[in-house]
Structure formats: C-alpha cells, structure tokens
Amino acid sequence: MTETELKHVPEDVSVVAEPSHDAEDRLTPEFVTGVLERVDSGDAEGARALVEPLHPADIADLFELTPSDRRQALAAALSDLLDGDVLAEMNDYVREDLIDALEPHQVAEIAGELDTDDAVAIIEDMEEDDQRAVLRALAPDDRAAIEEALSYPEESAGRLMQRDLIAVPEHWTVGDVLDYLRGNEDLTTDFWEVYVVDAAHHPVGCCALSWVLRTPRSIAISDVMAREQTLIPVDMDQEEAALKFQKYALISAAVVDQSGRLVGMITVDDIVHIIQEEAGEDILKLSGAGEGDINEPVMDSYKSRVRWLIANLATALVASTIIGLFEGTIAQMVTLAALMPIVAGVGGNAGTQTMAVTVRALATNQLTQSNTWRTIRREIRVALLNGATVAVVIGIGVALAFTNPQLGAVIAAAMMTNILIAGMAGVLVPLTLERYGADPAVASSVFVTMTTDSMGFFVFLGLAAATGLTG
Amino acid sequence: MTETELKHVPEDVSVVAEPSHDAEDRLTPEFVTGVLERVDSGDAEGARALVEPLHPADIADLFELTPSDRRQALAAALSDLLDGDVLAEMNDYVREDLIDALEPHQVAEIAGELDTDDAVAIIEDMEEDDQRAVLRALAPDDRAAIEEALSYPEESAGRLMQRDLIAVPEHWTVGDVLDYLRGNEDLTTDFWEVYVVDAAHHPVGCCALSWVLRTPRSIAISDVMAREQTLIPVDMDQEEAALKFQKYALISAAVVDQSGRLVGMITVDDIVHIIQEEAGEDILKLSGAGEGDINEPVMDSYKSRVRWLIANLATALVASTIIGLFEGTIAQMVTLAALMPIVAGVGGNAGTQTMAVTVRALATNQLTQSNTWRTIRREIRVALLNGATVAVVIGIGVALAFTNPQLGAVIAAAMMTNILIAGMAGVLVPLTLERYGADPAVASSVFVTMTTDSMGFFVFLGLAAATGLTG
Questions:
Q1: Where, by residue number, does the polypeptide cross the bilayer (chains A, B) (predicted)?
Q2: Does A63 lie at the interface with B, CB-CB under 8 angstroms?
C-alpha cells in the first residue's frame, strides 16, 4: 500500500535525539537551568545560542518553566526570538505577564505579523486602555480585521477564525485555480482547502488541495469540489465548532455570517487546543478548581476555589444537621459514629463515578433525549450490582467484627440504599442541570455529594434508631 | 485580509437547517423514532430514505441512539448504508455488537474499503478466531497491511497510521511532483503534505500542499520543503503522538520505523479523537469509573467500578478505625460526631481541587521537574488562604451556634490543618505516582481521600480530646 519502494537500511538512526528534551518531549530541567544561568551571568549570546534551534512551542514552554520573577530577564536576553509565534503558543497567564511589560507599539509590531486569530488571542485579554493603544499602533487593515474579530463574542468562532483564505468562483477550472494560486504573491500559504463561492460570496463547496493537485487542469472546480460541507456560523460557540470538527473529521471549515456569506476559515490546528481544553476542563469544573492552571496567580486560584469550599461547607452543614437529629441514638451506641462515614463515603464515590460518566456523555453529545431513559435504567442496574456487592462485604464484615448481626444488617441495608440513591443522583443531577441550561460539570458535584452524604447518614442512623440498635 | 471581495447579500440564508438535527447538531429524538418506526413496520425503503442524506458520523450516531436490541433490525434495513465509514465513526461497543452479527466475509468486504487505520480499528477488537477468518477473506495486500499494523502494540502509532502516503525523492522539482500526482491513478487522495525522502527512504523534509501549489514548477522540492519535521516512531504511544500534534500544530506527520525509514503517516483527523478521549479520560479515571462509556455492557461497568468502591471501602475503614480510637471522647460530647464529617468533607474537596489541577498539568506536560517545587509551594499558598478563610467561617459559626468558643477554636484549627494537608496530598500524591511510572489519574483519588478523611477525623477528635472538650 505504500507509494514508493522501501529499501533496507542497516544502521540504527535515532529519530528524536535533542539533548534539550526528555523522552516525553518535555524540556529537561538541565536545559532550563543552563539557559537561565547564562541569562543570570549576562551571557545573552550563549542563552540565545541554546534557545535558537527550538520550535516556537518549546520556546513558549521555556518561558512557562521559568519562575515568574525571572521571565522578564529571559525575555530581554531572547528579545529577537520572542516573536508572535512563540507568544501564540504561550500559556495565557505567562503571556499576560510578558505583554504587560511591553510598550503598545512593540505589541502592535508582534500582532501585525500574526494571523488574525493569534493576534486576537494576544490582544483580547489586555486592559481596555492598553488594547486601544495597541490597536492605534497597528496598520489600518490589520486593525480593521482585529477590531472586527473583537466584535464577536468571546469564545465564538468569529474570534477563532482567520480571514486569510482562498475563495474561488464556481465557474473556474482547476487550471484557473492553479494559475490564481501561483500568480498572486499576496495570498496566504496557510490553507488546506479551497472554498468555492457563488456570486454573492456564499460557499457552495470546498475542495481539498489533494483533489486540486490530482485533477487535470481543464476540469471545472465545481466538478471536483465536495458540495456537502460543514459551515460554521460566526457566532457559534468554540466548543460546538470543536465538536463539529471532531464529528466530521474536518481539516478546515468555512465560517459564514448571518446572511450566509463566507467571512473566514477555521483550521484544525486552532481547534485541537480547544478540544483538549474543553475535554480537560470538566475534571477541573467538577472538582471546583476553576481554571485549574498552574500558572494562574495564587489569588485567582484562591478566589475560584474558596467559593466551592464554602458551598461544600454549606452542604456539609446539611449532613451535620441530619446527624444532629440522631445524637440520642449515637449516644446509646458510639460505634455508629465510627461506621457512618463509611456509608456516606462509599456512596459519594459511587455517585461521583456515575456523575463523571454522565458529564462526559453529555459533553460529547453521546447522551441525548433519545437515550436518556435507557441511560438512567442502565445506571440503576449498575448501582444495584455495585450496591449489592458492597453491602454484602460491609454487612458480613461489620457483623463479624462487632459480633452484632443486626448492626451488620443495618449497615448493609443503608449501603445498598445509598449506592442506589448515589447512582440516581449521579445521572439525574447533571441531566437536570443540562435541561435547565446550566453547565452540568460546574455544579453537579455539590448536589451529588450533598445527596450521598445526607442520605448516607440519614438512612444508616435512621435504620439504627428504627430497629432499636444498642451497643 | 480576505482574498476576494465581499458583496452584500440581503436575504437571510439559514446555514444548518436539517430537521433531523437539533441546534447542537445532535439527531433529534423525533428523527430517531421516525426511522425506528419505519423499520418496525417493515418499511425499510422509508427508513433508508430518511437516513441516506446523513453524514456517516450521523448514521453512526443513529445506531448509538438506537436501543441495543433493535440495532440488528436497523442494520438489516439499512444494510447498504452501513459501510466502512459509518463503522469507523461508531462507538466501539456498538460496533462490536453489529460486527458480531456479520459473517467474516462481510467484515472483510467492509475492511477492504477502508484505510489501514480504520480497518485495524474494526478488526483489532474481534475474537482471535473471527479475526483470523476475516484476515483470510481479505485481498493479500490489504491483509499484509493489516497484519503488519496488528503487529504493533495496541494504542501505538503503528496501529493508528495509514500506509498510503505520498513520498517523493529529494532531487525532484515541484513540476515532477505535480506530474507524478496527476499521472498516477492509484495514488491516495487523502493527504495534506508530501514527504520528501532520501535514497534510503528516510524522510528529509515535508511540504504542505499549499506550498506545492504556490511554487513555480521549476523550483526543486528540496528548496520548498520544511527540513524540520516531527517524526513519529512507529512504537510511540498514541497519547504521546497526540501531544506532539497538539504542541507543534501538525496536520499530518511521518511515521518511521526503528531504522528511521518512512513507513506510514498519521493525519490530524485520527488524532483529534485521541486528544478528546485522553483529555476526557482523566475525569473517569479519577472517579474510578473505568471506560466510562454509556454504551459499555452493564457487567463491564459493574466490574470496573466495583473494584474502586471496594478500594474506597478499605480506605473508609481506616478513617472509621481512627474515629473508633476516640469513642470515649465522642461519648462525652456527641456533637463532635455531627461536626466531624464537615472537617473531613471540606478537606476532601480541597484535596480533590488540587489533585485535579495537578493531574491535568501532568497530562498536558505543563508540570515537569523544572517547576515541581514551584508548583508545590504555589499549592501550599493557595491551601493556606483557603484554609484560613474556611476556618474563620466555620470557627465563628460553631462558636456562636453552640455558644462554645473552645469548640469553635478546635474545629477552626482542625479545618485549617486538614485543608493544608489536603493541598499537599493533592499535589504530592499524583506527582509521586507519576515519578514511579504509575498513571496519576488512576489511583490518586483513593490516596488523597484516605488522607483527608483520616486526618480530618484524627486532627479534629484529637484536638477535642487533648483540650478536654466536653459538652
């Protein structure tokens, strides 16, 4: 199936062998230290010599791995290497740090080199005054493009798209397209598909470059193009656009405005970051860790996390109040106090399992109205099996350890009930939040934990009281 | 910045207006029901008419949304639409379901149409006997390609790559490349870059198709190609390959064998699924939810989840034992039993936050040896702030509610301590697991929860006992 003959080569050729990287393609601590030592000793030349061979993404990593109080010195030493490509690859917080120290005209110079989407990413987080100063320092056409992009909502396709693209009229032949591409110096080289548009600049098809290359010059482009193409509305949320790229295995997609005109293009390399971010975000949201970025300033992390801890405190008070109702029962048999966290804890874990599955299925559009009831029934079945297993284990264990079969039966029944409740809460809470337009990843955890804690204590202590358990 | 003039178009053109899809590009329940009703009433023709306009990814979704006991009937009605592209897009479990019902020669027919990587995805999960039967029924060259792919480890680049690619010698001109592409009917059309190889078939550069198209025929391809290219070793884990695609914004990458020869190509559309899966996996692993797929058979979900619940039960017993040590203290003041889950619970939440951040930072290669200590110090600072805030709130609240300042002081001190311990456990547990080669997402949760539960109870009850608190 390969296109050319494979010939035997005897010697072993090491494929990736830069000493600056470890086996997992991360910069080594020795390399980072080496660069910073040269910067500290005033050897900017030596630092530059080390860094110059690196890919812009690695230079961005180098800044991220440098302690924040030494980044300005590093930037000064490497100033000519710190270009737009490096900034575009950089973590938002680290970039803001560096950008803040630059003059507006320096930022404008960097932004002018970049595609619209990368320029917007650099400018959108600046203070309004600084932003205006940078925009004023830009060339008029770059400025217009960036201002238009900034007019779209944050995290929308309009912010993400680049306006440089190749659009050709539908009556052209493949030869016309080839001549146009080769004859116009100013055209972008960063494209993978050609869009075919009608007289009103509405997309009517798209054509992968491999098709342009494999087709004789005389054939009409409209005979080669794919007529079915995924169009991204300019105000579509970036997460939805990312799901489309994934679902339809797109390399690039045309972005259209409200009237259906072609206004830009999104390429998959910009989307890959979003897919990765959005998929990874759920875990951070579920745990209440906010942005969850290790480069975030401490005070920002504190603010986003403490809110959830306070919310958690409030739900813990509910559970505590429930325990308070049974103080008389506990006073009669203190062992109950030692056993009750088991029922609540394992129930909480079971709820978290179901919740994680449900949140992922919702995020990837796998769970829709068509299979909601089936999924709920499925989770209840799993919960029944899990509950039965854990209940038998803990029931027998407690009955033997305390030589108290009644205590064993109570904890087994409570465990079974709580795991079942956990399974239902784990699927119903995210579904309900989604139904009412809330992000299921953000608030599910608080409600599910409150349910499993409260019900765990209530069922266990309630059963103990009702069956007249005493030590 | 756009390449062609934009003309004003008055009418509003709706971009995506298929009634089969809802606003988020999911199939509507009405559509799914409509298809299944036609299948049930024997109207295969009508079902096919509804489904035919759909993209293969949507047909795959239709099968996923259909209850498992009706999928065979749907497959029978739509047999001619159920081709390799649809199967390649389908959820693994749903596909296995369908494949199991097909004869080996039918599977072979489908696999023969596909790229190697998609064919491998279909065949690799089959029982060994069935797999052999399918391989026997394949054409010899397809069979050889698939057998070679299957010889690479699961989840490696070798399984993921396609062997159809365009490789050209370095002495060719752009014109030679164009003539070669246009003159050979058998070449693949699924490529975005041309690889340039030396006489030993080692890659020496790559050239995006846009560069081939924008360059005059007479120029040597070696003057246009990029000499720096990311090579993927054939045995590299797919997750690592995905990180490379993301870091270097790749569209496709050459895969090389141990001796450095070009043996295949991976394109970004195959990688996007992996990035999404791997990033989403962490949340499922952390919660102990196994594969976490809503299409997984109930017994498989049960088996993967119950293991973690039993592990959680074991760690809950540790916490329970610690409480048991203080039964005398609790007997003197039963209120302690009602308050102690607050200390453990909020501590657990704080630990989960830090753990989620650490696991994500490790998974995305943001946390390396160079910034480990900085990250630990950072998390301790956040924990001190969080701990102080929550301690003040709960301390004052409890002191007032129970008119017992000493009790308030004890719970505040315990909360502060436990949140600090939680912050350290949340970052140190995943780091330690990673250092010893374990997947930090898999086992971190159990250890962190055990720490925060046990220490929460121990510190709170221990302080209460030590300070001689009584009701």
A1: 308-326, 338-362, 383-402, 408-429, 441-466
A2: no
Find out whether B121 and B89 touch, Cβ atoms under 8 Å.
no
CATH 3.10.580.10 in chain B, residues? 167-272
Q: Cα separation of A283 and B82, whole Å?
A: 35
Domain with CATH 3.10.580.10 in chain A: 167-284
pLDDT at position B471? 58
B292 touches chain A (CB under 8 A): yes
B79 lies within 8 A of chain A by CB: no
Give the model's pLDDT for residue A18. Answer: 43
Cβ contact A370–B330 (<8 Å): no
Which of the two residues, A194 and B121, has the higher pLDDT score? Answer: A194
Average pLDDT for B80-109: 86
Nearest to A323 among B12, B338, B344 (CB): B338
Q: Would you tell me how many other CB atoms lie within 10 Å of the CB of residue A435?
A: 11
The mean pLDDT value of chain A amounts to 89
**pLDDT reported for residue A25:** 82
Would residue A62 be called left, alpha or beta, if left means φ above 0 and alpha means ψ between -120 and 50 degrees?
A: alpha
User: What share of chain B has pLDDT > 90, as a percent?
Assistant: 58
Could you tell me what percent of chain A has a pLDDT over 90?
57
A272 → closest Cβ in B231, B245, B286: B245
Phi, psi of A205 (to 5 degrees): 180, 170
Chain B's closest residue to A204, CA to CA, is: B15
Which stretches within B114-203 are classed as H helix? 116-123, 128-137, 140-150, 157-160, 174-183
Domain spanning A29-158: which superfamily? MgtE N-terminal domain-like (1.25.60.10)
Q: Which residue has the tokens 């595609």?
A: A115
Q: Where in chain A is the domain with CATH 1.10.357.20?
A: 298-466
- Start-end of CATH 1.25.60.10 domains in chain B: 29-155
Q: How is domain A167-284 classified at the CATH fold level?
A: CBS-domain (3.10.580)
* A218, A175 contact by CB (below 8 A): yes
Query: If residue A256 lies in a helix (H) or strand (E), which one and from where to where?
Result: strand A252-256
Kindly determine whether residue B363 and residue A280, on different chains, have CB atoms separated by under 8 Å: yes
For range B199-216, the mean pLDDT: 93
Separation between Cα atoms, residue B235 and residue B153, nearest integer Å: 7
Residue B18: pLDDT above 90?
no
Concatenating the DSSP letter of every residue in B47-84 gives: HHHHHTTS-HHHHHHHHHHS-GGGHHHHHHHTTTT--H
3 state SS of A336 = helix
CA distance B316 to B41: 54
Q: Where do the CATH 1.25.60.10 domains begin and end in chain A?
A: 29-158
Taking the alpha carbons of A357, A348, A325, A316 in that order, is the dihedral positive or negative?
A: negative
**Distance in angstroms (rounded) separating the CA atoms of residues A128 and A84:** 21
Q: Does B414 reach chain A within 8 Å, measured CB to CB?
A: no
Write down the residue that tokens 């046990």 correspond to.
B454
Q: What is the pLDDT of residues A415-440, one digit of tens each?
A: 999 999 999 999 999 999 999 988 88
Question: Is 60 exceeded by the pLDDT of residue B11?
Answer: no
Class of domain B167-272: alpha beta
Q: What is the ipTM of this complex?
A: 0.83
Q: How many helices (H) and strands (E) does chain A have?
A: 22, 6
Q: Which fold has domain B29-155?
A: MgtE N-terminal fold (1.25.60)
What distance in Å separates the CA atoms of residue B36 and residue B389, rounded to the nearest whole number?
A: 56
A216-221 own/partner pairs: CB under 8 Å, 24+ apart? A216/A174, A216/B182, A217/A173, A217/A174, A217/A175, A217/A178, A218/A173, A218/A174, A218/A175, A219/A173, A219/A174, A220/A171, A220/A172, A220/A173, A220/A174, A221/A168, A221/A170, A221/A172, A221/A173, A221/A174, A221/A176, A221/A177, A221/A194, A221/A196
Whether A126 and A99 have beta carbons less than 8 Å apart is answered as yes
